[in-house]
């Protein structure tokens, strides 16, 4: 984002052992800590390089498309190295590994050696060190951890310990998540600095010197999640009139008295004044001044030359009594100075959402912007994790081929990528990268399956597997008309699962399960809604739907064989009603609709609980178009959600409803109008209801932008409270029109109550809880007691003036983009809800991966002789509250494994207990664990070598903890506490 800038921060280590000491001069020991009796100003020279926004990542790297903006990251890095070489006092920080890696690959050995020297001497410091500066509202924790690990691995392998990032630097993201603070703390970071905070929050914190604090990042993990957090004084740019970049127009320091325009006294005085003003908001005699902004530093000589002089002349004033002492520093050195100040700090336990930059400008639209890209990113992660598992369990050692997808995912986490706040051509580029990465991963998937599918004694037969990514619109062209094909489903979770695959076909088949039994499958017509989705080219009119029970961490293959004589087929019973009231029912749930398609009740039959609904369905807010006469009122746009009026309008007061009942599924399909429909599915044995929504093309012929929500109005007595998750993990309580840490002045009744929903939202009363799981990040909240609303799609005709300069007006196939997605509805008692939503959310983001193949075997018997049709890496049942987060083969004998407890404290009687597991069970099919080392979360340091800085809170709580008291482990057996993630490097025999 161009309008704001920030600074960075950094870290320190201490604790049991001596602080990390570098013989070279990197690390905290090499920090300039200023003068105790002065106001010490840490000058931080930096650049903020978006890995894609107005231009694609590579356009920014090279500096092409200069008609959009004249910026090239390669020139910035060239120029920084040269400027640092010139003066050993200078410091610079670099953040985005996606760019640095591109640049490094193109450097000579000589240049690389120079850079290594700068890093070892602490003159060039890597801060945060993720592949990108990730978004915090719309990202999933799995991918945040991965993208930080990717950057950390590159830095570790290239530079060693001097390049280990020690602080988080989130200067531009639009709101800050508590889960991110927790993850950063677990990566061993000592602090976090960011630039954007709600304007009201800043107003309250500033006079009370509360912009720096200890953030308690987790309600479950205690001090290992605490993170010192600082809010930068004014975004991340230079203080007013001190920007010396070629893109700025502030006066240089003109210091030759023989020339005209000598300005040293005026500039020194102005700077000293700025330092004094800034210090009013901060608690110690140290302040940080960021000198840099978006893509600054292309000719960084200009910046440094003036900063050199500024430092010289400002410090000269000390002889005249000035108390301002200024010097080149880094965010980590600033943090270290704060740590040395031995102060007691205020604490924070909630988060920094939502974010309003100015009155009426709530940045809550991006929680939903570009819903298709948001889903594709989540899907790509699903494939990435499956690919790693397949590579690891088949021991193919093909990690290099997975790098493409890891790299694309790292870039997609950027705060203008998955957030949906980039220009359209850049969004296309992100999707293209993910798609290319998935293609590369298919080579690994194929190689792995060639091995796993071949029965012992058989030579490996490669039957290429392929994805059918369009099965969400009931299209799989490669199998159309085929006499036989297979469907193999890999379950990436460590628990067996039951799913209901849908296979669109152009003829009838017999389906056999892995032991040869004929699978009872429903043969259902594909809905008109689906068939009308623009771009669908399939001629399939029907799809099979069947129950597939999959082994833990393993696969089943289903064999499809065309029926010889379709006339003889005895069709399974299908009962359909048109525009009549209907009830979907299985042994656990009953869902009732009236004849106009209104959802009336969901009854949990096991618990005898009923939740009643009124006017459930789709509504739209008119987007505020902006008004030239009131420029202070922002338009709705890619970032900002600003409804014209605080009322949403129903898309239609009633719909047509068809109900279809089979043995496997009961469905209610409701069409509200020609651009909005929903289908409820209740599967046999299911304890949840699935709602599939389809929205688009959103009409704009009335010249009004529209933001589409699904609203669930219930009789639950929820008051003003609702609950949303952070990055797919811990859940935070939200209260309508309320902020936990300041007296909130409500200026936007709707938008100011929107929060990110990465995986779930719920409302509840004493007896009932309605939880809704989402298949991607969306925005939403509770605008009325008993009501949940979730925004699913937006089409807007104006720009919100926050920088992207384009209307969010997504189109495809010549018309507005059609998007579909899923909500999973759970009705339970509050005390029994966690096991449903925890397991349900885990299965949504780590869904079994379907691959197809066209075998050349003459018959099923022949196929089953040659191929293994079912396999599991596990032979023991794993505890339900453990999730395998990462399984990544590093080298021939080495693996990176993360396991996590994914329940919170006190949310379930059984599963909120700590749990013990044996890592050896995961390696049963591979070998015996010879050695295992526990690592920090981003896997760049043995946990035993981590010494974080200690802090003290105003309540006299010390952040100090002895890691080995908490992390006991015995052989390969370990204990996990609620919400704990543990990371191991494992060597096998
Ligand atoms: C319901 O079925 C009728 C007859 O097959 C069809 O014309 C109509 O489009 C269907 N409506 C929905 C909502 O699926
Ligand atoms: C939105 O997209 C439609 C279809 O491509 C186009 O006709 C219209 O001009 C666009 N409007 C804006 C404001 O971008
Ligand atoms: Zn940015």
UniProtKB/TrEMBL annotation:
Span of domain Glycoside hydrolase family 38 central: 361-434
Query: Which reaction(s) does the protein catalyse, per the Swiss-Prot or TrEMBL entry?
Result: Hydrolysis of terminal, non-reducing alpha-D-mannose residues in alpha-D-mannosides
What the entry lists under PANTHER family is as follows: ALPHA-MANNOSIDASE, LYSOSOMAL ALPHA-MANNOSIDASE
Molecular function per GO: alpha-mannosidase activity; carbohydrate binding; metal ion binding
Gene Ontology CC entries for this record: lysosome
Cofactors, names only: Zn(2+)
Signal peptide region: 1-17
Q: Which UniProt keywords apply?
A: Disulfide bond, Glycoprotein, Glycosidase, Hydrolase, Metal-binding, Signal, Zinc
Give the superkingdom in one word: Eukaryota
EC top class named in words: hydrolase
Which Pfam family is one of this chain's hits? Laman-like_dom
Q: How is the cofactor bound?
A: Binds 1 zinc ion per subunit.
Report the protein name in the record. Alpha-mannosidase
GO aspect biological process, one term: mannose metabolic process
Enzyme Commission number(s): 3.2.1.-
Query: Family assignment?
Result: Belongs to the glycosyl hydrolase 38 family.
């Amino acid at each position: 984002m161009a309008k704001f800038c920030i600074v960075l921060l950094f870290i320190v280590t201490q604790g049991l052992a001596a602080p990390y000491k570098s013989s070279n001069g990197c690390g905290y020991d090499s920090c300039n800590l200023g003068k105790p009796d002065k106001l010490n100003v840490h000058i931080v020279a930096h650049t903020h390089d978006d890995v894609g926004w107005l231009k694609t990542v590579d356009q920014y790297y090279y500096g092409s498309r200069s008609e959009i903006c004249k910026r090239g990251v390669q020139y910035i890095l060239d120029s920084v190295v040269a400027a640092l070489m010139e003066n050993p006092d200078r410091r610079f920080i670099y953040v985005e590994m996606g760019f640095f890696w591109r640049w490094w690959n193109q450097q000579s050995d000589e240049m690389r050696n120079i850079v290594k020297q700068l890093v070892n001497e602490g003159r060039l410091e890597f801060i945060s060190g993720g592949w990108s500066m990730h978004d915090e509202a719309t990202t999933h924790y799995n991918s945040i951890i991965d993208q930080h690990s990717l950057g950390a691995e590159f830095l570790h392998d290239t530079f060693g310990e001097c390049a280990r990032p020690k602080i988080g630097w989130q200067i531009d993201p639009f709101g800050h998540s508590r889960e991110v603070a927790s993850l950063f703390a677990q990566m061993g970071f000592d602090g976090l600095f960011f630039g954007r905070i709600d304007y009201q929050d800043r107003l309250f914190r500033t006079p009370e010197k509360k912009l720096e604090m200890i953030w308690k990042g987790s309600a479950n993990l205690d001090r290992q999640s605490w993170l010192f957090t600082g809010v930068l004084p004014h975004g991340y740019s230079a203080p007013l009139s001190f920007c010396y970049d070629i893109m700025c127009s502030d006066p240089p320091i003109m210091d030759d008295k023989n020339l005209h325009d000598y300005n040293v006294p005026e500039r020194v005085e102005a700077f000293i004044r700025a330092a004094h003003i800034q210090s009013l908001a901060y608690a110690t005699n140290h302040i940080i001044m960021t000198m840099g902004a978006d893509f600054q530093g292309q000719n960084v000589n200009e910046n440094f030359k003036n900063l050199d002089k500024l430092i010289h002349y400002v410090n000269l004033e000390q002889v005249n009594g000035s108390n301002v002492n200024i010097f080149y520093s880094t965010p980590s050195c600033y943090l270290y100075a704060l740590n040395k100040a031995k102060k007691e700090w205020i604490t924070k336990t909630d988060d920094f959402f939502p974010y309003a930059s100015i009155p009426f400008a709530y940045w809550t639209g991006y929680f939903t912007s570009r819903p298709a890209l948001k889903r594709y990113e989540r899907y790509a992660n699903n494939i990435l994790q499956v690919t790693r598992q397949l590579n690891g369990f088949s021991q193919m050692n093909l990690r290099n081929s997975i790098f493409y997808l890891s790299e694309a995912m790292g870039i997609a986490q950027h705060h203008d990528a998955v957030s949906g706040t980039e220009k359209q051509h850049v969004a296309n580029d992100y999707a293209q990268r993910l798609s290319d990465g998935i293609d590369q991963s298919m080579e690994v998937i194929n190689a792995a399956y060639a091995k796993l599918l071949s029965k012992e004694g058989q030579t490996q037969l490669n039957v290429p597997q392929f994805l059918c990514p369009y099965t969400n619109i009931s299209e799989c062209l490669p199998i159309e008309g085929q006499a036989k094909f297979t469907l193999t489903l890999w379950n990436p979770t460590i628990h067996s699962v039951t799913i209901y695959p849908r296979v669109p076909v152009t003829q009838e088949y017999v389906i056999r399960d892995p032991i040869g039994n004929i699978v009872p499958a429903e043969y259902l017509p594909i809905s008109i809604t689906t068939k009308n989705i623009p771009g669908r080219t399939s001629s399939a009119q029907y799809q099979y739907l069947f129950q597939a029970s999959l082994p833990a961490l393993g696969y089943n293959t289903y064999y499809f064989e065309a029926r010889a004589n379709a006339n003889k087929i005895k069709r399974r019973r299908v009962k359909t009603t048109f525009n009549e009231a209907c009830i979907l029912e299985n042994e656990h749930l009953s869902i009732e609709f009236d004849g106009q398609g209104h959802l009336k009740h969901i009854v949990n039959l096991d618990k005898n609980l009923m939740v009643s609904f009124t006017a459930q369905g789709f509504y739209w807010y008119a987007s505020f178009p902006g008004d030239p006469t009131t420029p202070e009122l922002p338009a709705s746009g890619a970032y900002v959600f600003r409804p014209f009026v605080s009322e949403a309008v129903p898309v239609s007061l009633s719909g047509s409803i068809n109900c279809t009942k089979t043995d496997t599924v009961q469905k209610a399909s409701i069409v509200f109008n020609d651009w909005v429909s929903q289908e409820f599915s209740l599967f046999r044995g299911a304890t949840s209801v699935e709602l599939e929504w389809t929205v688009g093309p959103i009409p704009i012929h009335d010249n009004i932008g529209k933001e589409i929500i699904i609203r669930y109005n219930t009789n639950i007595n929820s008051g003003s409270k609702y609950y949303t998750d952070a990055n797919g993990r811990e859940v935070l309580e939200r209260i309508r029109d309320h902020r936990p840490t300041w007296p909130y002045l409500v200026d936007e009744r709707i938008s100011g109550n929107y929060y990110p929903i990465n995986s779930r939202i719920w409302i509840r009363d004493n007896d009932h809880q309605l939880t809704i799981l989402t298949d991607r990040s969306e925005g939403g909240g509770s605008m009325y007691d008993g009501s949940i609303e979730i925004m699913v799609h937006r089409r807007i005709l104006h720009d919100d003036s926050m920088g992207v300069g384009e209307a969010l007006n997504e189109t495809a196939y010549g018309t507005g983009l059609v998007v579909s997605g899923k909500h999973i509805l759970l009705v339970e008692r509050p005390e029994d809800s966690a096991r449903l939503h925890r397991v349900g959310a885990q299965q949504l983001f780590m869904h079994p991966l379907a691959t197809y193949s066209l075998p050349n075997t003459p018959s099923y018997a022949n196929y089953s002789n040659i191929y293994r049709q079912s396999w599991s890496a596990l032979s023991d049942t794993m505890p339900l509250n453990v999730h395998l987060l990462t399984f990544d083969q590093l080298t021939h004998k080495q693996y990176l494994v993360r396991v996590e407890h994914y329940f919170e404290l006190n949310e379930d009687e059984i599963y909120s207990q700590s749990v013990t597991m044996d890592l050896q069970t995961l390696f049963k099919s591979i070998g015996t664990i010879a050695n295992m080392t526990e690592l920090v979360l981003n896997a760049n340091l043995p946990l035993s070598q981590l010494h974080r800085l200690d802090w003290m809170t105003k309540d006299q709580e010390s952040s100090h903890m002895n890691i080995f008291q908490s992390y006991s482990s015995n052989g390969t057996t370990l204990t996990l506490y609620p919400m704990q993630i543990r990371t191991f490097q494992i060597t096998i025999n």
